[in-house]
């Protein structure tokens, strides 16, 4: 980076270094030795602010045709007939793809993440319609306008049968469901400990159906060249999607290439979906590249979502707040075609111990779209219920909410019995309380007024798993002194491309300007997806391993051959060798809110989070990951809710005017800090930070609303009507 | 979206002639509502007559002391205009409370008056809706109706009008002027929107083919002290859950004149005449303001999920009028 | 007489002229992205509900998704591609880059174009819903964080980069008039 005097006289930063990608620092010059830990602007930042960065739907293809999905307008039944001929006669229409002419797909496989495919993505395999908004056809045309009109004109006849979409806490047709953790954990005599408790909280909390809604809708372009398939896509893991497509279409994975260079957000929703599969089918059918982009409305039923939850939490404690009994039971909802559980009751397995400890995730199957992972699956809704219940317990015991939590800090994993590989929750609360000014807080609710606003503050704890999954990477020492890293990582906005540049630079002992990272291409080999807060940790591990080996291969002073020297790494064995421990990030959330009791408006005035989340690679982008998660918490607490019409079985207000996510005016000053969280035994030292920021954030807001008003809101979002009706559901 | 013809009009008679009596044609101005509805299939016009370039883009003082607002004045220009901000702050505030900066730069006064409801059932062309498809039924009556009407609705339709601007215009006795192929006409805002009754698809009293040309506001000294307050489920860029446009003139502690209109409670901006009558001549205190709101809201018929709106509107009325009274006393 | 449903139009974009036949249904957004390969302008919702497609039309920020291409004929359109002066970024772009005013980057071109519009509107003395008093006598509202937040609220950012976006807009405002003008080179010969 150099600072030059521009012609206009404005000092401006430019990138004139002969080597390396765009890399400038925000303030001080680069620290020469360690890049990790110093703020760096994103390596692709210039492309993003100038519009040069191309996302999936923007990569040009010659002879491109446009596909438009047609979704069912009934919630349950069968397709009787599709009047394709009428539509094929419309201008520009090339093909209509449905269950009568679609190629058969293989769906009995287990994918990279150990899961079977959601049949919603295995399009056009039968006449069955299991929910409203189910894909029934794809219309392909020369232009997107023609495809859209033809898709809207396509007449589909259904045989409709009564559906059931009513999600309530008192359903009897539920079952315990494992998902990515056991459905039930149980120890001690719950009823006995509750009976022996001086103080008991027994409350039910609900969270609504929530949607990811990344700003970039799902988009894919597929092209066949002979028996080779190329897909330009927007996803969270290109080798993951290759695996799914290869399985679905019974292809050799080596003949499938998926590229996903820039991804406009994912949050769990961008895996294999109906649009990629339909595009692949259609491209084969019309012999041209076909692009399919989901509309915002279609995303409500095709992109996955977070299930609503009903959660009952029972806490029993001694008068001093020590937990004797903890019972957290969560019910979530899935479709009739796919089993996905929102494991909200899993939070307590890490957070709090008790003599009797019971957690249970149950599921009911309804005629609704399939849910999926959404930013902090389980932890986000689960921490709302559990951390709100802790706040209720603190009030009942007359104990400060932070003191209550610190009094119940477990020595080992409450369920696993394993030691923690670091648990710096106490430091988070101490640092956060100091910065937030918690010690000045009057614990009494409903006593602070400023004009029309009642003011209150709240806090909550957070945790999220710090796992890692096997990945491969390659690094090439180029003849010109640069290093090229190739890894099938995905940068969905997390700053992974920049983080891996810094990690590689430090591991190679070179300045980051000499490192170029290529990602988002399945040709680079298997790698973990951007998900589960495991991406950056897993990829960094592979990059560090390759760098270490490459450094050993490079002979000081010796020239590098024209083709460069390349080494590959694979972390499978190293990850398997990792000692069994409870590995998590932790955090403390603080919120200050203002509530107008006359109108029911709630405004968050201030939010502050302190996190113990391993070594922070790039403080500049890490701050955005934490605050972005916290802003999701604000949005979850006050705004987000997808409505479903019982009669039609479909979504109501399926757009961004009906489904509110927080906008600028909802978001006040949001601060994120971090504390030391070193684990000398950890070979990477880096934890994922994409999800911890949302955990506990909604609870902190809800607890602050109670502190402001004296009224508990146990159902999210805390809408004006709910505040006006005093927490009773309107 | 079906294919359509497009013509750009350069003057008002030309626009009216281009549209003619074709029921399949629509005027296009800012497009913020119409183009969206065309994409969702709610509107499927065969022809568009673009009127955005018509010379109707001025805000002028009238000799009588009011203002004339051209139909193609953008929401932004209206809210930024010194005359509006000075004489009718409630109108500037109402416009600024609506949509976003981008949409206000596009949307026009005429189009704003004619925007369609944001009822989610209306917007979903795959389901029933009496306003969109007469006779198909109203799912909102027994469906998701938290944001629906509490006043003036019918069993056929419980949708609310989405405009913030029109609420202020209703309080300010705005008059809508239009042109047709035969003759010009005008409609006071109170008559501009039709009652829902059994014909929710018929929304305004405009004759077929009519083009809105201007909105005039009579002088309203009471509006010097006026305010628009909007409650919504997000702090900005969201439609109202309930809103109040109010103007208040208090002399010696007594209400001399009051204007009050409610938004997001009915199929049209709801001029709260009963409240105004109750309040005129009454003491300017919270008790009177509450009594006035109660007088207006006695006619409220809440649905399953929107009973809170009665409380909200009562509280908003008291809050906004109290603020205005306090400021007047200073 | 058969209805004419497509026309050849000329669009003025970033100082260049583009002649192209368009289906009347084509929005300005789709014309930019699918016809002219100007993909910097993003499609987030296609319904005017997210702001990702914000461009400047005759200097004012508008959403390109609700603007028919044919209705944009004759107007000066500036997209994110038209903001930088060669390698020199527009002050708003530079501030977004320096302060990490984005994450995934998809809403970013819209946020940047919107911010330029916000700064221009504020400089023109326009009030907002966050302004305490809209009357002209109250004078122009100060450009507080709350003013920026309200004025930028038509641009959703699902990653939640709002904090740094607001900082970036405030930082860019320090550049004065350059921050609120789209720098567009003079008209060139027709490109198509």
UniProtKB/TrEMBL annotation, chain A:
Residue stretches of biased makeup (Low complexity): 17-26
SUPFAM superfamilies: CO dehydrogenase molybdoprotein N-domain-like, Molybdenum cofactor-binding domain
Domain Aldehyde oxidase/xanthine dehydrogenase a/b hammerhead: 50-162
Oxidoreductase found in the keyword field: yes
Presence of the UniProt keyword Oxidoreductase in the record: yes
Region (Disordered): 1-26
Pfam families: Ald_Xan_dh_C (PF01315), MoCoBD_1 (PF02738), MoCoBD_2 (PF20256)
Keywords attached to this entry: Molybdenum, Oxidoreductase
UniProt xrefs under InterPro entries: Ald_Oxase/Xan_DH_a/b (IPR000674), Ald_Oxase/Xan_DH_a/b_sf (IPR036856), Ald_Oxase/xanthine_DH-like (IPR016208), AldOxase/xan_DH_MoCoBD1 (IPR008274), AldOxase/xan_DH_MoCoBD2 (IPR046867), AldOxase/xan_DH_Mopterin-bd_sf (IPR037165)
MF GO annotations: iron ion binding; oxidoreductase activity
Protein name in the entry: Oxidoreductase
Organism this protein belongs to: Streptomyces phaeofaciens
TrEMBL record, chain B:
SUPFAM superfamilies: CO dehydrogenase flavoprotein C-terminal domain-like (SSF55447), FAD-binding/transporter-associated domain-like (SSF56176)
Pfam family, one: FAD_binding_5
Gene Ontology MF terms: FAD binding; oxidoreductase activity
Superkingdom of origin organism: Bacteria
Keywords, sorted A to Z: Oxidoreductase
InterPro entries: CO_DH_flav_C, CO_DH_flav_C_dom_sf, Diverse_Substr_Oxidored, FAD-bd_PCMH, FAD-bd_PCMH-like_sf, FAD-bd_PCMH_sub1, FAD-bd_PCMH_sub2, Mopterin_DH_FAD-bd
Gene3D superfamilies, A to Z: 3.30.465.10, CO dehydrogenase flavoprotein, C-terminal domain (3.30.390.50), Uridine Diphospho-n-acetylenolpyruvylglucosamine Reductase, domain 2 (3.30.43.10)
Domain called FAD-binding PCMH-type: residue spans: 1-222
Protein name: Oxidoreductase
Automatic annotation (TrEMBL), chain C:
Residue ranges occupied by any 2Fe-2S ferredoxin-type domain in the UniProt entry: 7-83
InterPro entries: 2Fe-2S-bd (IPR002888), 2Fe-2S-bd_dom_sf (IPR036884), 2Fe-2S_ferredoxin-like_sf (IPR036010), 2Fe-2S_ferredoxin-type (IPR001041), 2Fe2S_fd_BS (IPR006058), Aldehyde_Oxdr_Iron-Sulfur (IPR052914), Beta-grasp_dom_sf (IPR012675)
Residues forming coiled coils: none
Keywords associated with the record: 2Fe-2S, Iron, Iron-sulfur, Metal-binding, Oxidoreductase
SUPFAM superfamilies: 2Fe-2S ferredoxin-like (SSF54292), CO dehydrogenase ISP C-domain like (SSF47741)
Gene3D superfamilies: 3.10.20.30, [2Fe-2S]-binding domain (1.10.150.120)
Pathway: Alkaloid degradation; nicotine degradation
Pfam family, one: Fer2
Keyword Iron annotated: yes
GO molecular function terms noted in the UniProt entry: 2 iron, 2 sulfur cluster binding; metal ion binding; oxidoreductase activity, acting on the aldehyde or oxo group of donors
Entry's transmembrane regions: none
PANTHER family assigned to the protein according to its UniProt record, in alphabetical order: OXIDOREDUCTASE WITH IRON-SULFUR SUBUNIT, OXIDOREDUCTASE, IRON-SULPHUR BINDING SUBUNIT-RELATED-RELATED
Protein name: Oxidoreductase
Organism: Streptomyces phaeofaciens
């Amino acid at each position: 980076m150099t600072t030059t005097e521009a012609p206009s006289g404005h000092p401006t930063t430019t990138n004139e270094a002969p080597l390396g990608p765009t890399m400038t620092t925000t303030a001080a010059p680069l620290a020469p030795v360690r890049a990790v830990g110093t703020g760096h602007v994103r390596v692709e930042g210039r492309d993003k602010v100038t519009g040069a960065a191309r996302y999936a739907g923007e990569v040009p293809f010659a002879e491109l045709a446009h596909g438009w999905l047609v979704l069912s307008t009934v919630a349950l039944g069968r397709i009787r007939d599709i009047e394709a001929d009428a539509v094929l006669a419309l201008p520009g229409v090339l093909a209509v793809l449905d269950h009568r002419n679609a190629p058969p797909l293989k769906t009995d496989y287990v994918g990279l993440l150990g899961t079977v495919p959601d049949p919603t993505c295995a399009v056009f395999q039968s006449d069955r319609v299991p929910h409203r908004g189910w894909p029934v056809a794809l219309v392909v045309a020369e232009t997107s306008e023609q495809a859209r009109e033809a898709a809207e004109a396509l007449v589909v006849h259904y045989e409709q049968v009564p559906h059931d979409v009513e999600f309530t806490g008192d359903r009897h047709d539920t079952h315990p469901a494992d998902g990515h953790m056991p459905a039930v954990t149980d120890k001690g005599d719950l009823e006995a400990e509750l009976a022996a408790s001086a103080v008991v909280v027994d409350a039910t909390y609900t969270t609504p159906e929530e949607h990811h809604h990344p700003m970039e809708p799902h988009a894919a372009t597929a092209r066949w060249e002979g028996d080779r398939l190329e897909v330009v896509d927007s996803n969270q893991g290109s080798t993951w999607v290759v695996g799914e497509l290869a399985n679905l279409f019974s292809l050799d994975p080596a003949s499938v290439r998926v590229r996903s260079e820039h991804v406009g957000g994912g949050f769990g929703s961008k895996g294999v979906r109906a649009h990629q599969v339909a595009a692949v089918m259609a491209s084969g059918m019309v012999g041209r590249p076909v692009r399919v982009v989901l509309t915002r409305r279609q995303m409500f039923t095709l992109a996955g979502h977070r299930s609503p939850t009903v959660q009952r939490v029972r806490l029993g404690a001694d008068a001093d707040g020590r937990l004797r009994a903890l019972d957290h039971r969560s019910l979530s909802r899935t479709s009739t075609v796919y089993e996905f559980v929102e494991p909200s009751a899993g939070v307590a397995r890490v957070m709090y111990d008790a003599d009797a400890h019971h957690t249970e995730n149950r599921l009911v199957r309804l005629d609704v779209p399939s849910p999926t992972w959404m930013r902090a699956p389980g932890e986000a809704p689960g921490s709302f219920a559990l951390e709100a219940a802790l706040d209720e317990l603190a009030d009942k015991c007359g104990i400060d909410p932070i003191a209550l939590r610190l009094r119940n800090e477990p020595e080992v994993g409450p369920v696993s019995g394993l030691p923690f590989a670091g648990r710096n929750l106490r430091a988070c609360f101490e640092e956060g309380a100091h910065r937030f000014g918690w010690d000045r807080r009057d614990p009494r609710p409903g006593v602070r007024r400023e004009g029309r606003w009642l003011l209150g503050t709240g806090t909550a704890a957070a945790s999220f798993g710090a796992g890692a999954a096997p990945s491969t990477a390659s690094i090439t020492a180029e003849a010109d002194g640069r290093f090229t890293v190739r890894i099938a990582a995905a940068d969905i906005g997390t700053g992974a491309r920049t983080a891996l540049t810094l990690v590689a630079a430090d591991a190679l002992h070179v300045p980051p300007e000499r490192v170029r990272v290529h990602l988002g291409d399945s040709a680079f080999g298997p790698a973990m997806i951007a998900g589960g807060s495991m991406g950056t940790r897993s990829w960094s591990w592979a990059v560090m391993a390759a760098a270490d080996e490459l450094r050993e291969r490079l002979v000081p002073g010796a020239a590098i051959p024209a083709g460069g020297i390349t080494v590959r790494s694979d972390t499978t064995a190293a990850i398997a060798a990792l000692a069994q421990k409870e590995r998590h990030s932790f955090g403390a959330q603080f919120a200050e809110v203002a509530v107008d009791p006359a109108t029911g408006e709630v405004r968050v005035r201030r939010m502050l989070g302190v996190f113990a989340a391993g070594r922070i690679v790039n403080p500049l982008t890490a701050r955005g990951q934490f605050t972005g998660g916290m802003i999701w918490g604000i949005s979850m607490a006050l705004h987000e809710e997808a409505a479903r019409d019982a009669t039609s079985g479909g979504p109501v207000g399926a757009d961004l005017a009906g489904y509110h996510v927080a906008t600028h005016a909802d978001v006040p000053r949001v601060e994120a800090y971090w504390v030391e969280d070193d684990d000398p035994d950890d070979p990477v030292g880096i934890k994922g930070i994409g999800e911890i920021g949302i955990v506990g954030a909604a609870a902190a807001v809800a607890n602050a609303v109670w502190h402001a008003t004296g009224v508990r809101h146990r159902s999210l979002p805390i809408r004006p009507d709910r505040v006006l009706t005093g927490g009773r559901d309107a | 979206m079906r294919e359509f013809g497009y013509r750009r009009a350069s003057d008002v008679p030309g626009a009216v002639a281009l549209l003619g009596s074709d029921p399949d044609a629509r005027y296009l101005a800012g497009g913020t509502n119409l183009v969206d509805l065309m994409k969702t299939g709610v509107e499927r016009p065969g022809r568009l007559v673009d009127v955005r370039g018509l010379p109707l883009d001025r805000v002028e003082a009238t000799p009588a002391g009011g203002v004339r607002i051209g139909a193609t004045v953008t929401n932004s220009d209206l809210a930024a205009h010194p005359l509006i901000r000075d004489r009718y702050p409630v109108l500037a505030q109402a416009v600024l409370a609506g949509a976003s900066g981008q949409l206000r730069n596009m949307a026009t006064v005429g189009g704003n008056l004619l925007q369609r409801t944001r009822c989610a059932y209306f917007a979903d062309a795959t389901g029933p809706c009496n306003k969109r498809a007469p006779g198909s039924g109203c799912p909102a009556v027994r469906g998701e109706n938290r944001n629906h009407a509490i006043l003036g609705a019918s069993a056929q339709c419980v949708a609310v009008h989405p405009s913030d601007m029109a609420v202020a215009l209703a309080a300010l006795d705005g008059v809508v002027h239009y042109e047709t192929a035969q003759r010009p006409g005008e409609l006071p805002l109170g008559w501009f929107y039709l009652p829902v009754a059994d014909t929710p698809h018929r929304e305004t009293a405009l004759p077929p083919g009519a083009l809105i040309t201007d909105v005039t506001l009579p002088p309203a000294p009471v509006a010097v002290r006026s305010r628009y307050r909007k409650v919504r489920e997000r702090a900005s860029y969201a439609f109202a859950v309930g809103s109040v446009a109010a103007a208040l003139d208090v002399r010696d502690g007594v209400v001399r004149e009051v204007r009050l209109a409610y938004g997001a409670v009915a199929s049209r901006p709801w001029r709260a005449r009963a409240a105004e009558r109750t309040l005129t001549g009454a003491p300017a205190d919270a008790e009177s303001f509450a009594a006035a709101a109660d007088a207006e809201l006695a006619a409220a018929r809440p649905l399953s999920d929107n009973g809170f709106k009665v409380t909200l509107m009562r509280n908003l009325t008291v809050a906004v009028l109290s603020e205005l009274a306090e400021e007047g006393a200073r | 007489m058969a209805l004419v449903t497509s026309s050849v139009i000329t669009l003025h974009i970033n100082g260049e002229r583009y002649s192209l036949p368009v289906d009347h249904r084509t929005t300005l957004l789709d014309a930019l992205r699918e016809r002219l390969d100007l993909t910097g302008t993003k499609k987030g919702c296609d319904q005017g509900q997210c702001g990702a497609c914000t461009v400047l039309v005759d200097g004012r920020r508008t959403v390109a998704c609700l603007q028919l291409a044919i209705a944009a004929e004759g107007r000066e359109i500036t997209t994110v591609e038209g903001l930088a002066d060669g390698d020199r970024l527009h002050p708003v772009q530079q501030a977004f880059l320096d302060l990490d005013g984005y994450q995934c980057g998809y809403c970013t071109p819209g946020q940047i174009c919107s911010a330029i519009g916000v700064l221009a509107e504020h400089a023109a003395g326009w009030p907002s819903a966050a302004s305490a008093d809209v009357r002209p006598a109250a004078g122009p509202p100060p450009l507080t964080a709350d003013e920026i937040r309200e004025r930028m609220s038509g641009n959703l950012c699902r990653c939640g980069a709002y904090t740094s976006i607001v900082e970036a807009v405030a930082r860019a405002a320090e550049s004065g008039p350059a921050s609120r003008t789209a720098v567009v080179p003079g008209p060139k010969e027709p490109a198509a």
